[in-house]
Design goal:
5-stranded parallel sheet, Dihydrodipicolinate Reductase, domain 2, Rossmann fold, alpha/beta, binds nicotinamide-adenine-dinucleotide, 24% strand, 15 helices, 33% helix, 2 domains
Length: 487
């Protein structure tokens, strides 16, 4: 167990707009990690699921493979926990120094994570990985005997929630005559067995399955949600059933897809069980750049008039998003990402938000290699116009998997922390929603009354500064006042 002290502050703004600052002495305590972490992926047979399993197992087995550009080995490029660093300062010669996140914090080694999960498709992990068309042929052959024995656990299938075009995949499903309680109990017992058979201390459940349509359920608390389950309410989506089973078994539940799984009742249920949730929708490519560029343009005083994003992809995710209700879920998470930047700058946006459109097309030919095109059209000095256009091509799942790894490792880390605010407070864990993970999600869910931050650099500063604090440094201000000469 490690304990560190720091000073937090708040501002108090009076009715005339004058503000004052209050300082609150705080104490952070970090519990050590236990010996074994398990991850159960819902949608393990999809592109992200199979790429995650293949990547981590290839690293663990030390596999190297040949490609047209030479021999490769697994490097977790794109993972903040493995390669990202925190600036710690400058030495007397002015040289900058940093430390890797995983050197600072007591996080699990990715190769020690025990993996399993569910899929509505019965393909074993080798067949599913072949279909995903992400992994190089040579690597795939070398991985075959590791991944072929991995079979997905049967899952909850509701054709009402994912696209109709996914129906042929539904070959590994729980009985359709099950009640919602039967489903939840079955998933809970899968989790308990996985934990027992692998001798795990802790399991995280991650929704990485197809995007669902939004639920229309309006349950505001746990009691209403439980009543809806007892009444087999058709608006209780599979992802909500997984979130409930995870909470019931003491597990953190993370949602990597855009649908509105983490509503108030699901959060209240996790709170009741003392577990955590995090989400929603992995922030991997186009939206990640948008959370950088919108912030950069507006904070430089430039006024974006329109932001238009197109992308096309040809993997199974693209096929599922080709139907209107599932696209709608994605459109919402992709569009919300500029809200905080715009709302905070009324001087630039006195008349509302810039025009903002998101278009996604399913183009089978490009497979997992997603192409994203964006145009940022802005007003500058003297009514001038500025157009910034971008083309971004990348293997979708190879961008997503390092972020999935980060979400799992940081979620586990943040769930082991307590903070004491003020001398008379008792130490408390973070709120039920692990909003410290906001950096990794397109539409971060926060705790009640907690501000929503989408802007990338604020999200990054939040994590960087937290890690600085736990090694005894103050938050970074980058002012370098003592080094700017003049004495
Ligand atoms: P995918 O279509 O390849 O995989 C989804 C898997 O989920 C499939 O194997 C499908 O059979 C399975 N599935 C569907 N419903 C299920 C259920 N109820 N229970 C268990 N399994 C179920 O998609 P993907 O590319 O792996 O993406 C997964 C999710 O992550 C999608 O919702 C996608 O929008 C989201 N996402 C992906 C990225 C990215 O890849 N860069 C970024 C952000 C979000």
């Amino acid at each position: 167990m490690k304990t560190v002290k720091f000073i937090d502050n708040n501002i108090i703004v009076d009715t005339n707009g004058n503000f004052s600052v209050t300082n609150v002495p705080c104490e952070i305590t970090i519990q050590p990690r236990k010996s074994k972490l398990g991850i159960m992926i819902v949608g393990i047979g999809g592109n992200n699921g199979t790429t995650f399993i293949a990547g981590l197992l290839a690293k663990k087995a030390g596999i190297t493979w040949d490609t047209t550009t030479g021999k490769k080995s697994v490097k977790y490029y794109g993972s903040m926990s493995q390669y990202g660093s925190v600036h710690i300062g400058y030495d007397s010669q002015g040289a900058p120094h940093s430390r890797l996140f995983n050197d600072i914090a007591d996080m699990y080694n990715p190769e020690d994570i025990v993996m399993g999960g569910w899929d509505i498709c019965k393909d074993n992990m080798y067949d599913a990985t072949v279909k995903a068309q992400v992994i190089d042929y040579d690597l795939l052959q070398k991985l075959k005997h590791y991944i072929e024995p991995i079979i997905p656990i049967p899952s909850i299938y509701s054709p009402d929630f994912i696209a109709k075009n996914q129906a042929p995949r539904a070959t590994n499903v729980l009985p359709s005559e099950n009640t919602l309680r039967d489903n939840i109990n079955q998933i809970a017992s899968d989790i308990i067995n996985f934990k027992k058979w692998n001798n795990l201390d802790n399991v995280i459940v991650l929704w990485c399955a197809s995007t669902e349509r939004f639920t229309k359920g309006t349950w505001s608390n746990r009691d209403e949600l439980m009543e809806a389950i007892d009444n087999d309410d058709p608006e209780i989506s599979p992802s909500i059933q997984f979130a409930i089973a995870a909470a019931q078994t003491g597990c953190t539940f993370l949602n990597g897809s855009p649908q509105n799984t983490l509503g108030p009742a699901v959060i209240d249920n996790a709170k009741y069980h003392g577990t955590f949730v995090g989400g929603e929708d992995f922030k991997t490519g186009q939206t990640k750049i948008k959370s950088v560029l919108a912030d950069w343009l507006v904070s430089s005083g430039i006024k974006p008039l329109s932001i238009v994003s197109y992308n096309h992809l040809g993997n199974n995710d693209g096929k599922n998003l080709d139907e209107a209700p599932q696209f709608k879920s994605k459109e919402i998470t992709k569009k919300n990402v500029i809200d905080d930047v715009v709302d905070e700058n009324p001087a630039i946006f006195p008349d509302g938000h810039p025009d903002h459109a998101v278009v996604i097309k399913y183009i089978p030919a490009v497979g997992d290699s997603k192409r994203a095109m964006d145009e940022y059209y802005s007003e500058i000095f003297l009514g001038g116009r500025h157009t910034l256009a971008m083309h971004n091509t990348c293997e979708d799942s190879l961008l997503a998997v390092p972020i999935i790894l980060d979400i799992i490792l940081f979620a586990d880390f943040f769930s082991r922390i307590t903070i004491k605010r003020g001398d008379s407070d008792t130490p408390k864990p973070f709120g039920t929603v692990l909003s410290m993970l906001s950096l990794f999600f397109k539409a971060p869910v926060t705790n009640q009354a907690e501000p929503l931050v989408n802007a990338f650099f604020r999200q990054k500063a939040c994590i960087d500064n937290f890690f600085r604090i736990i090694i005894g440094l103050p938050p970074a201000d980058h002012m370098l006042l003592s080094r700017r000469g003049g004495a």
